[in-house]
Design brief:
The chain is an all-alpha fold. It is built from 16 helices and no strands.
């Protein structure tokens, strides 16, 4: 398939415009003007097409749009915003969902951006968290989307807790709004059994989940003399997020992270509070 590099054509026009009117606008004004120019570009007749760029993509069928997206990526030609805009305007359709069976990272990222957290994709997203074919960049993006639908995908995510996808499962479950003992138990077990360096993360998950039953465990942990400054701060934040309070003064003057924070913050902690 021979592709048209629409972005290259547009960028040439922008370069000419900038050269001809240099110094006439501020950077912010130029950004607005370039955005307007791109919209005009999409509606400008191109003799080589016999139509406007926007019409060119609008006349494609769903499958053709997806195949065109693949070709732009395969041939390493800049993907036109006009193409993505046309796909988005049609909502989520089968050919677009089929991209979630692909393994090319860049193509999958485009699919995730175009599909978003549409309910029809959620089950596949959860499956993808357990697939070795996808790297952490894809799985991080999947988790971000699934977190916005945590209660909806809870039953699919809970079975992942004892698997290699555990870290993503816990992150997603921490965003559930509906209380569920299974979710609480999974988060609490992770907090109680995690390695020392994982405690701040799991404390954050308990804070995010918002179940005050976690307060005794958090308070017990923060009382330990062997915790570092970062762990202390995250535990304190979690306790306060759940409605508790911890006011005991602790000495972290020998903690390396504490020293760096104090030096950078001129005597304030990482939350901006004065530390003595």
């Amino acid at each position: 398939m021979k592709l048209i590099d629409f972005d290259e054509k547009f960028n040439k026009k922008v370069a000419q415009m900038l050269e001809a009117h240099a110094g006439e606008r501020t950077e912010e004004e130029w950004e607005d003007e370039i955005a307007k120019a791109y919209r005009r570009f999409g509606d400008t007749y191109m003799a080589a097409l016999g139509k406007t760029p926007r019409q060119y993509f609008a006349e494609m069928e769903d499958k053709q749009l997806v195949e065109t997206l693949k070709e732009y990526l395969l041939q390493e030609v800049s993907v036109p915003d006009l193409l993505c805009g046309e796909i988005e305007s049609r909502g989520v359709f089968p050919a677009l969902l089929d991209l979630l069976r692909e393994t090319d990272e860049e193509l999958v990222h485009y699919a995730l951006n175009l599909i978003g957290n549409d309910g029809r994709a959620l089950a596949r997203y959860v499956q993808m968290l357990s697939c070795e074919e996808y790297d952490e960049h894809v799985k991080d993006a999947l988790a971000d989307l699934l977190k916005t639908k945590a209660d909806e995908v809870k039953e699919l995510v809970l079975p992942l807790v004892p698997t290699q996808a555990r870290a993503y499962a816990l992150e997603i479950l921490s965003k559930c709004a509906v209380r569920d003992d299974r979710v609480y138990d999974a988060l609490m077990t992770a907090f109680r059994t995690g390695e020392d360096e994982e405690v701040p993360l799991y404390a954050g998950y308990l804070a995010s989940y918002g179940d005050e039953r976690a307060l005794p465990a958090l308070t017990e942990r923060i009382e330990r003399e062997d915790i570092d400054f970062v762990t202390f701060q995250e535990l304190k934040f979690a306790i306060e997020a759940l409605g508790g309070e911890y006011t005991k003064q602790r000495d972290f003057s020998e903690d390396e992270t504490y020293k760096k924070v104090m030096a950078a913050g001129a005597g304030t902690d990482i939350f901006g509070s004065r530390v003595s």
